[in-house]
Design a protein that fits this description.
Layout: H1 4-11, H2 21-97, H3 104-132, E1 140-143, H4 144-161, E2 165-167, E3 176-179, H5 181-198, E4 208-216, E5 219-225, H6 254-264, E6 268-273, E7 279-286
Length: about 290
């Protein structure tokens, strides 16, 4: 005999079927319990949605603060370099003028360098302002070879004060690329400064930076080699994170800014340990027809 119909009738009897008081009371109690459980679930759901909205608002605020912090750090980091160069050039100029026989020609060179650094600081500020507004960069074809020589000249007084020697083949040929000249120069200057700072614990005669280039198919590679202590390969990606630094007095912005500039030019920036010690930074860019 099939007991299934009796089971269903005991739960949901058809219309007109007699209900005893116990069954009716049990069903009423169960309904009340379910309503109360659903009410608690709805309350918890409302509370969870409120907490989620609050967390999303806090996350958006934290992201905005992080972006503001990165922008401020970028301004401080990028402007600090030409300001440091200004100070170094001014001190050099004073030394030339304070000699028993003042060297006016060398002092004039220092003043020319000061003017160039001031112009560079103004250009950097304008570029940072454009980045903050998310303006499209103004790309044009230019000679990166000449720009490398300009970067070396700009760094002369700063590296002199740091007792760092920079080697660059003066016969760099024309290297046409498409991009924003000042931004790419700043990326390369950041790499040079990073390498120079990495060698400050080495004896003065061993602080040598090498700025070099090579053609590789449709790409142009710029290398910056230093003789510092190198870096932990496990941090090869973290060193590019904004505000991450392994230096006691570092800001953690130089490499992050350089990579963002290179990526905006459809390029790549990598760090690798050198076999004889130190670090090689390689900046790869697409080549452009002259």
């Amino acid at each position: 005999m099939n007991a299934e119909p009796d089971f269903f009738r005991s739960i949901c009897p058809p219309p007109g079927w007699p209900l005893d008081a116990d069954r009716h009371g049990a069903l009423a109690h169960e309904n009340a319990r379910l309503r109360e459980s659903l009410a608690r679930q709805a309350t918890r759901l409302d509370e969870t949605e409120h907490k989620l909205r609050h967390a999303q608002a806090e996350l958006a605020r934290a992201n905005r603060l992080s972006l503001y912090g990165e922008l401020v750090a970028s301004i401080v980091h990028e402007v600090a370099q030409p300001v440091t160069a200004l100070d170094s050039a001014a001190r050099a100029g004073l030394r030339w003028l304070e000699r028993d026989e003042p060297n006016v020609a060398r002092a004039r060179e220092a003043l020319t360098h000061i003017s160039a650094c001031a112009n560079r600081a103004r250009t950097i500020i304008e570029s940072l302002r454009a980045r903050a507004r998310e303006d499209a960069p103004g790309f044009a074809v230019f000679d990166l070879g000449a720009s490398l020589r300009e970067v070396a000249d700009l760094a002369t007084h700063t590296f002199g004060a740091m007792k760092v020697t920079l080697r660059l083949d003066p016969r760099v040929p024309p290297l046409p690329v498409r991009g924003e000249r000042v931004l790419l120069q700043q990326a390369i200057l950041n790499l040079l400064m990073n390498g120079a700072e990495a060698m400050q614990d080495r004896p003065e005669g061993q602080r040598e930076l090498v700025l070099d280039w090579e053609l590789a198919g449709d790409s142009l590679r710029i290398h910056v080699d230093d003789r510092g202590e190198g870096f932990d390969p496990a941090l090869a990606e973290r060193v590019f994170e904004p505000l991450f630094t392994t230096k006691p007095s570092g800001m953690g912005m130089g490499l992050a800014i350089s990579r963002s500039i290179v990526q905006a030019h459809q390029g790549q920036l990598l760090l690798a340990p050198r076999p004889d010690g130190g670090t090689r930074a390689t900046l790869t860019l697409p080549r452009t027809a002259a």
